[in-house]
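Sequence in, structure out. Go.
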Amino acid sequence: MSSVPGVEVPIRKNDVIANYKEIQKTKPYLTFEYGVEALLHIFTFHDFAMFHVLEEEYGTEKAVNLYARIWERRTDLEFAGLKEAAGLDRDAPVTMDALVPIMEIYFETFGNPIYLVEKTDERVTWRVTDCPYTTQILWNMFPADQNLAYNDKIQVACNNAIFDRFLKITGLEAEWNFGFPSQLCRTNSYCEFTFVRRRF
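Output:
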């Protein structure tokens, strides 16, 4: 490794967590909490900027559609890791029962409290009672009118893109429909995510 002027032993762990812990030794303000919030802020700025650039270039309708496609692609990239985190092999089939822990991991990893409130052969419903992306980060970063306008354009499209993709990836779309009947941003109560069995 090449030397760095003025640095006795340059930090290079080839691991972001190990690097962060090493930097914390001389920069104690870089706490775990600071790092999580910083990452959420960067992600939110990036997401907000990306949508608005798309909207400026292509208009709202096309921007919303492209934004949804981006979230679909992201879901494609992350789903195998979610399966592994839930204890499933990457190639293992996913039933609706197996989707329950996947949904919980998906939300809880980023500090979203999620509760399974209904589970029958016909319907599976979760409620998410807090969301750092919206309630802690987004609502504090921009004026309320901008937040509501942004939310109204992307929130339903985004969540449908993610969870319809879950159904498509797992092959469950032939049996189940996804619904998003309640938004935390609008109700100040919870987001509700529901899968309802198709009726033929």
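Check: The beta strands are 114-119, 123-128, 176-182, 191-197. The first helix runs from residue 16 to 24.
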